[in-house]
Amino acid sequence: MRLGIAALSARWSRSPRWAPSTLWALLPLITREWQHHPWRHGVALLAVALGVALAWSVHLINVSALAEFSAAVRSANGAPDAVVRGPSEGFDERLLDQLGADPAIDRASPVIEIETYAAAADGQRVAVRVLGIDALVAAPLSPDLMPQPAAALNVDQRLAVLNPELAFVNAAARDRLGLVDGAELALQSGPGWTRLRVAGNVAAAGTPLVVVDIAAAQALAGSAGWLSRIDLRLRPGAGAEALAKLQSALPAGVNLLPANEAEQRVSNLSRAYRVNLTVLALVALFVGAFLVFSVVSLSVAQRTPAFALLGVLGMTAPERRTLVLTECAALGLAGSLLGLALGTAMAAAALRWLAGDLGGGYFPGIAPPLQVQPAALIGFAVLGVLSALAGGYLPAKQAQALRPALALKGFGGVVANSSPPWPGLLLLAAGAALAFLPPIAGLPIAAYAAVAALLFGGVAVVPAAVLALMRWLPAPTGALPLLALRRAIFQRQTATAAVAGVVASLALSVALTVMVTSFRDGVAGWLDTVLPADLYARSAGSAAAAEQAWFAPDFVNTVVALPGVRRVEASRSRALQLQPVRPAVTLIARDLGDPAAALPLLSAPRPVAAGEIGVYVSEAVVALYGAEVGTEMMLPIPASAGSPQSAQSSPSSPAVKARVLGVWRDYTRQFGAIAMDLPVYQQLSGDRRFNDLSIWLAPGADAASVQQALRAAAADPRLIEIASTPALRKMSLAIFDRSFAVTTYLQVVAIVIGLLGVAASLSAQVIARRKEFGLLAHLGLTRRQIVTLVAGEAAAWMAAGVLVGLLLGLAVSAVLVYVVNPQSFHWTMELVLPWARLALLCAAVLAAGVMTAAFSARLAARRDAVLAVKEDW
């Protein structure tokens, strides 16, 4: 060891400061420290690895799912230069001739888009997407949609693509529906089926897809003369001026959009969910930085004599700081590499067994392959290193401030000086201020910064909290408790290193517990309001599919007459495209009667004036479109196909002016819903179709018998989905629990990392105090009394840490509930505090910390007291 120090001293004496050779000379010191304390540094390395693994796996799953979904969208939509798209119900196909005559357009390909259901071979109804194309012009723009007729079938290969009785399916449709060439394909059209024959394949990937001739699609949708979109190929040289001219020539409600608008819309659908999940996953890495701080700060304190000797031998103060930061960087790099490998394995397993949805419901039916982005891989590795460096920054500064000559004599060591509480209070104030800032690019970036500021500020005020708590407690009468209390106060700065990880992990666990409980309680109360009936029947699972799957008025009359049915309330759902760049909102037409009883309104409804059309909007519509109570909205409510109104107006008829009378809470439609009284909707649109039935049973009626009668009344049992209120409630809460299952894992990881930090910190402290224990043994203290003394000190620090962590967690939960959720998902909830669970969580953390300290003291107290004291002579 002396020879090694001499060699290092000689190298420092003849090497310029900060030379690579100087940094290389530090490596033996780093490896020696790791060899002497492998468990301590291994715990910190594991914390970084777990944080990187969790964040990296969530990122991989999200990126892989989004990439697969986007690839499927690009495959189905082709590669046009621009897209003309109108309202959700479509626009007049005469616009195609107008665009075809424009000199800036080389090719225009019309498309019909239909969301409907197909009958599977197993008797189930499967959601499919139907695209109607003109095969004569679509090939250059959408090659993956071009039909490939089956050679074995007796059809004219040249005219098969124009035959309205033939359909072409992709691989997903074949697998899910059990189709073979020549088989019959039944597609739902209203309350019945339209039957086509499978005549070949299309190459488009993704969810089940059916491609038919455009005339067949118009007949299926009952929208002769209407188009959903027109894909454009521009002539060379057509620039922004030509595009602006094209847009100005389009009718109202029809827009010229970028070619990737559909892909961007898919990304926007899940962006808030993906970002929030990734930020939550970084929680473990954030807590790991505090664990690195605990381990490194106490490691620096324990190595004071070694740093002093190195300083006397020629190591400068900046080099001591470099040594500590190099140790942290090496620890972070090793933890990052381990975490990346572990996270990749976790993501691969999740994509194989759980698909790519992660409980959010944005990528149903997607089983994507793992897609690793090298830039992201490097980015997460850098995050791991930076978290370790952040944790080791303050200990490195302490090592730099060491006075070697005094430290060798036992004075001026690395002892945390009493720091004022104002930096922590300033951070807490900054966190509170940031929480009030608006979202940035639709994401709660300032709220995330507020959470970080609150956590750092809370850790910074731990010493002040220890002092305040100790002064608040009555003075003990026994010598041993008094000694433990006095030392806990005197060394309160050390408490920051000991319990920093616990404060951060407990605060985040409390915040997640409160947020999930508040949300779940809000959803449960909301379900009580929106599910007043005994049974519910629906024709479609989405507003888009509701245009193809609906109940006729005579079926509703049949249901009313069924035995055991007391009352039936029918409603109509459909998609409305308020803005071309945003997802469609859902229009719900139902008998509102008393709106305060029919809808979970946030406040008393505004009375409707004579001649006004009143609507009630969800919170998302207010956030996205500024539709406050009393404002006017323009709703593009189209006339129903075949109604008297549709014969007198085009599909893109002028929008209807409506007044917002109230705002209601809706936890199912993230991008907004609008409720309108059913008679008003029917008068405006002429639409007499229904999608949902709420059924109240007569007293004593058997729900199972009524459900059986409902299915028998339908033309085909597959056309109706029925569920009881308890079943719907159970299913809704199960979906909620699945969506937030990852938060439970995050809480466990955060608490485990925090407790590992307590174990590492207190163990290092106890080991560093061997001489003190020897002296106490000479003064007459038994081993049990020494263990009790250390446990008492740890209990004081842990109590302060738990108290700060609890208060911080409540503050962070308020930010999550009142800021992050409304800014991310556009809904609100009431803050619910589950005191029993929080008390158990705090008690468990406190008990675990005290037990860890007692166990560490018990191990250290085994050493011979005489030998421990002899080291001082």
Enumerate the spans where pLDDT stays under 50 for 5 or more consecutive residues: 1-19, 641-652, 865-873
Shape: elongated
Largest sheet: 10 strands, mixed
Range of helix content: 55-70%
Average the pLDDT over all residues and give the rounded result. 80
Overall description:
The protein has 873 residues and is α+β, with helices and mostly antiparallel strands. Helices cover 56% and strands 14% of the residues. The chain contains 30 helices and 21 strands. The strands form three sheets. Strands 1, 3, 4, 5, 6, 7, 8, 9, 11 and 12 form a ten-stranded mixed beta sheet that branches. Strands 17-18-16-19-15-14-20-13-21 form a nine-stranded mixed beta sheet. A two-stranded antiparallel ribbon has the order 2-10. Helix 15 (445-460) runs antiparallel to helix 18. Residues 1-19, 641-652 and 865-873 have low confidence and may be disordered.
Quick overview:
The chain is α+β, with helices and mostly antiparallel strands and 873 residues long. The chain is 56% helix and 14% strand.
